[in-house]
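Hi R.,

Here are the chain sequences for the assembly we discussed:
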Amino acid sequence: MEQNNFFAGIKDGFPVCLGYLSVSFAFGITAVGMGLDIWQAVLISMLNVTSAGQVAGLPILAYGGSFIELASTQLVINSRYALMSISLSQKMGKNVSFLDRFLISFVNTDEVFAIATSKPMNVGKRYMYGLTLTPFLGWSFGTFLGALAGNILPPIIIAALDIAIFGMFIAIIVPKAREEKPVLLCVLLAITLSCIFEFVPALNNLFANFSGFVVIICAVVASLIFAIVAPLPPETSGEVSEK
Amino acid sequence: MNETVRFLLGLLVMAGVTYLIRMLPMVLVKKKITNTFVRSFLYYIPYAVLAVMTVPAIFMSTKYSLISGIAGFTVALVLSYFKKGLLPVAASACATVLAVELILKAIPT
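And here is the predicted structure of the full complex:
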């Protein structure tokens, strides 16, 4: 048995598409708020298709940080996709060719991965193309709308909308942290480190132009510590979800 | 370097790294990761990353006052604790910030 119906993929991907519209809308607003043009914001979304990585990369792109910082930030923040691609690779049927894998992996987001791996049967290439199509369009179009709104709405509204992307991040973290104490403690440690970098003047000055590195250092240290003190049970599949 | 050229090169680096992370394992690796430490690390990473990007930056996201940032943060925290979903949480945080900003503007200093 294999799920290989294009329209079944479209149907499963559509709720993800709607969710992406709002997140990428917030991203679009944030991007033009940092001085980027609409086409730049949309191009970032079309080529990256990832929320956390784009938000972290944004200030580095907008304010001219180094390419090394940009690359290492993406490497750390998006490292989880490597795991997802390995896992999804084993769910895909024999008709998924080499070339198909080059295309499908481009849109292997947290949500696409979660849906594809939740199927009880293998997934074929037609299903995967359907599943990735509308989320990709939603992500790109939402960014366009957000960037447009950011250019035409009055400043006080824009200022209020700037908090949207952080609100979404909180809505991803808190329900998980409420259920799982190690996640809560890991998040609190990461925040503590992040505040130390921000509020200790010597550190803040040292890393003033390296916001990406601060994200890496804090997140990696906290995750390493909790991978040691609170490892996952061996039998779970280790699926991770961004939202 | 021209600013647009610099942006495009940076974007290429960013998108290239992200794509390689997704593409190489799907094309090359066929066997499952069983190492508990690696799986655990990758399990915690997304939450830690999002938390670091949110705090303390959320308090500086509101241009006009720290108070509205704290108010928006608190509302987001409470609503997400009760699992209200991405959009309601984000929209409520925005509305809170706007309301507080408008109130602060109305109070003569």
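Chain A touches chain B through 101 residues (CB under 8 Å). Strands of chain A lie at 2-3, 122-123.

Let me know if anything looks off.

Best,
T.
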